[in-house]
Amino acid sequence: MNVLESMPKSVHPRAKAAIREITGAESKKEARRAIEAFTAEFGAKWPKAVSKIVDEKEALLTYYDYPAEHWRHLRTSNPIENRHTQYAHRSPACSSSSSFAERA
């Protein structure tokens, strides 16, 4: 769900700030208001980007169902990326100047 891919780069700073308002809200109610504000600001020109947030709104706001002391960890954890990083560190990097390329 990459919202920014559906928007021009010139809008990215405003969109990132609006997304931070959603994910950094103090309550689920405030987060819903931030989603409404995001929809109002960007919906007319970039409906695809807005639909990525609106369609997944409940999943996006699930961490508000947990105690507030856990929010920080839930907001910053991305299990897919964490697993990818784990394997990326174990894999050797490929380069065009490797001995394999010279043998070919």
Structural features, described:
With 104 residues, the protein is an all-alpha fold. It has a domain at 9-76. The chain has seven helices and no strands. The longest helix is centred in the middle third of the chain and has 15 residues, at 28-42. It is elongated and about 35 Å long. The N and C termini lie far apart (40 Å). The model has no long low-confidence stretch (mean pLDDT 78).
The separation of the N and C termini measures 40 Å
Helical amount among residues, as a percent range?
Answer: 55-70%
* Mean pLDDT score: 78
Structural class: mainly alpha
User: Total number of β-strand segments?
Assistant: 0
What characteristic shape results from the CA principal axes? elongated
Beta-strand content: under 5%
Low-confidence stretches: none
Q: What is the element string, with H for helices and E for strands?
A: HHHHHHH
- Summed up, the helix count is 7
**Can you summarize the main beta sheet?**
none
Q: What is Rg? A: 19 Å
Would you summarize the structure shown here?
With 104 residues, the protein is mainly α. It has seven helices and no strands. Helices cover 62% and strands 0% of the residues.
Write the layout of secondary structure elements.
Blueprint (H helix, E strand, L loop, with lengths): L11 H12 L4 H15 L4 H8 L2 H4 L7 H9 L2 H12 L8 H5 L1
Helix pairs in contact: 1-2, 2-3
What keyword list fits this structure?
104 residues; mainly alpha; elongated
